[in-house]
Amino acid sequence: MLNRLRDWLCPDLGIDLGTVNTLITLRGQGVVLNEPTIVARSKETRQILGRGAAIGKLAKQMVGRTPGSIEAVRPIKHGVITDFHLCEQMLNYFIRKAAPPKGGLRPRVVIAVPSEISPVEKRAVFNSAERAGAGRIYLIEEAKAASIGAGLPISEPLANMICDIGGGTTETAILSLGEIVASQSTRVAGDEMNEAIRDYIRQRYSLRIGIGTAEQIKIEIGSAAPLASELNTEVRGLDGISGIPRKATITSEEIREALVECLWKIVGSIKLTIEGCDPELIGDLADTGLVLTGGGALLRNAGQFFQEHLGIPVRVDDEPLTTVARGTAICLEHLHYWRKKFQTEGAGF
Ligand SMILES: Nc1ncnc2c1ncn2[C@@H]1O[C@H](COP(=O)(O)OP(=O)(O)OP(=O)(O)O)[C@@H](O)[C@H]1O
Predict the structure, then answer these.
(1) Is 195 among the annotated ligand-binding positions?
(2) Which residues are noted in the entry as ATP-binding (predicted)?
(3) Which of 63, 80, 152, 203 would staple 72 via disulfide (CB 3.0–4.6 Å)?
(4) Does 167 count as an annotated binding residue?
């Protein structure tokens, strides 16, 4: 009864504070907010545009199309807050949008953060969330939240491996008995793939394209392993020699070539994680395999590529963009159990 009243007045929130996307879940309701982690502000006054509303989807529409006086800023880079003030304003806006406050109560919040962030960086997340209106704050490692969201039996005495390929970081972890036993984090992820595509097209076609176009190409025809039927797309950019707009047709084979180095670096990071694990547990991985999550897992044939190069079964989660957020939602449902395991701070409820 008390729980229901509290849920109505001030629902608990789960937040996946990602480099590219921020997702918020409410206890019992699943994902209620999914917005780009971007803020648009005036360069001169540093005020957020649209009376503080140019955040998320609205700000993303402005990327690359802003006049010189406006900048679209991502307050998080490689999973770590780089602009505290902006992050706090963004979180405040998202929290209010997801769960408008009633009665002045502060919600309990579970936030997923990269596993290898420093104590100072953790403190920045606490402070930003607290100033944005959160009450008691619990931090959970992104890889653990992803494992829970993907339904892995992480409480069992068995090795389970997860690899979350996000926008700014790829987090790989092996978990057993509810804890991370080995992990690696690399900055090779979706953003670096976009840069690789942009550079490839500049070198191969002398065509200059923006990072947003490179991302669109990745989503439209990107793949990690050969496709049954290869794809192509028309790309518009600026001729690097004449400076005149020009078109070119790019194939999925070419994009695969552009992405191969990034993918090999991710394979290297997964192998390092395995090497850092107790040999007793490594044996389990031949059966339990690897689960891929994060937006990067949507690259066509990603499962096939990693399976071929790691020699263990690989499964892509059904909805990899929401796995971490769904993991935080499950933690909210069982907060009495999980809160003993979280790193917590805040005013309490
Ligand atoms: N279909 C797709 N194919 C390939 N990549 C995709 C696809 N859809 C989205 N992505 C990429 O997924 C990335 C975003 O994933 P995600 O939302 O999991 O990252 P994030 O949680 O914001 O980042 P991080 O975990 O690094 O903080 C972007 O780089 C985006 O380009």
Answers:
(1) no
(2) 167-169, 215-218, 295-298
(3) 63
(4) yes
